[in-house]
Amino acid sequence: MIASFIPRHVSNRVLLAVYRFLTIFGVPRFVRKNHLRENRIRLEQTDWDFWRLPDAYIENQSEWEKIRFGVGQRLRMSYAGCEIIATYNARKALGVPVSKKVMAELIGVYEARGTALGGMFGVAPTAITAYFRKIGFAVETADGADTKAVEEIAGRNKVMIATAYNDKNDIMAQIHTVCITKNREGKFVLHNAYHRDEKGRFCESRPYDTLQEAVLHVSRREPKLIYLIGVRRSN
To answer: What is the pLDDT of residues 92-102, one digit of tens each?
Structure first.
């Protein structure tokens, strides 16, 4: 009963307001500087395909256990970095330059403004909206419960970021944020959503006909959309 109360009875609007409040517990400047230095070194030591391949996205968050993020020795990108990875993937899909150096700096950007409870709960989804608006993109958002607004955003945008409960009946299953792109056929593809290929390697999802269908595959449990962001270049 306790685990199901928040996803069942707390509105998405209230949840997002709580996230915004938790951003007051930021990451101290000296910690951010140390993380930036360490992450630049550690990211340079990685050799993942998505650094080299133009059409490859970050799919392997669980393998980012050496990359620092947030306050506390235990916090890492592998635990709480999904919003940052979704931002990076969206930048790449939008044609914005990306690199190992950019990722290290992006972690620092969100540590300075956006971490929820110092990163314990990742990044506030609304901070992603603020980030893309700040760098000059057209952004529109929808409450996950507003089906009409969600469908309109899905129709107008080729790049989206979705925040969802991993399980609509269990807050202990946590919340996950993913980038969603449209392929050439207009179908929806999830990135960094735990999907694996036949060899067990992390990969993007198969294409789904609708956004709603894609969201149902954010996790292997019973996902529920909380917040959708559509991002596109300004005219």
So the answer is: 999 999 999 99
